[in-house]
Amino acid sequence: MTAVSLGPLALPITPLLLLISVLVGLLVAALVGRKYKVSVTDPLLTILLGSLLFGRLVFVARFADSYDSFWQMLDIRDRGFDTTATLLAALLIASWLLWRRRQQRQALLAGVLTVTMLFGAFSSVIYVGRQQAALPAISFQQLNGDSVNLAELGAGQLTVVNLWATWCPPCRREMPVLQQAEQDYPDVRFVLLNQREHPETVQQYLQQAGLDFQHLLLDRQGLLATQLGAHGLPVTLYFDPAGQLIQSHMGELSSASLAQSLQQLGVTSE
């Protein structure tokens, strides 16, 4: 599962679980703080926001060549954060606050531990769930009418499957990123899997946008999204050469966030 559906909205699962963990952590800290007659809401938020800011800055510095402008660097819709830098910053800020604010130490420690353990548990569940997901042996139609088996197409090669539609603004914005990625990462197979649209609609959009992909398939019934619980668009799924789902990203991709994901999987551009 990559997202949770709330009526017409589809929310990315990882940020949502982080938010839940933080809210529970604030609640626990408030209960403990009531016992000692202190409040630790501000310190906990300082840890969260400070670590995320540092993680974003490190991410932007690492992938500065992937950005065309300063404003793109400020656009966090791609959720580009350096995980190691974020965790290190959180540890340092938390340690400093625990040292400086002795009266708040018990409540602050309770909140930090609650967030850490709860989000860790959520992440473990997500990881286990991914182990059960694989590239399905489903045949999809190409624009020329031929059918292609998705499992056979991705066999033996790292495969990135992008679920998209022409009516989806973030999908359209990330199309040039994926087209360039086909050229930059020849060892990766990119599959653009259109969701529930007529071939003529897709063909017309590609011509107007000047886009051309090696592997563009049509999922007229949304079979893959239903099978893998990929709610909302766009969704990008990463499968290893054995067809196992190893990573997912719900929401818009940037060149930087795509490069980060591929680096984590041991792939670099030529």
Automatic annotation (TrEMBL):
<feature type="transmembrane region" description="Helical">
    <location>
        <begin position="44"/>
        <end position="64"/>
    </location>
</feature>
<dbReference type="InterPro" id="IPR017937">
    <property type="entry name" value="Thioredoxin_CS"/>
</dbReference>
<keyword id="KW-0676">Redox-active center</keyword>
<keyword id="KW-1133">Transmembrane helix</keyword>
<protein>
    <submittedName>
        <fullName>TlpA family protein disulfide reductase</fullName>
    </submittedName>
</protein>
<dbReference type="InterPro" id="IPR050553">
    <property type="entry name" value="Thioredoxin_ResA/DsbE_sf"/>
</dbReference>
<keyword id="KW-0812">Transmembrane</keyword>
<feature type="transmembrane region" description="Helical">
    <location>
        <begin position="107"/>
        <end position="129"/>
    </location>
</feature>
<feature type="transmembrane region" description="Helical">
    <location>
        <begin position="84"/>
        <end position="100"/>
    </location>
</feature>
<dbReference type="Pfam" id="PF08534">
    <property type="entry name" value="Redoxin"/>
</dbReference>
<dbReference type="InterPro" id="IPR013740">
    <property type="entry name" value="Redoxin"/>
</dbReference>
<keyword id="KW-0201">Cytochrome c-type biogenesis</keyword>
<keyword id="KW-1015">Disulfide bond</keyword>
<dbReference type="InterPro" id="IPR013766">
    <property type="entry name" value="Thioredoxin_domain"/>
</dbReference>
<feature type="transmembrane region" description="Helical">
    <location>
        <begin position="12"/>
        <end position="32"/>
    </location>
</feature>
<feature type="domain" description="Thioredoxin">
    <location>
        <begin position="129"/>
        <end position="267"/>
    </location>
</feature>
<keyword id="KW-0472">Membrane</keyword>
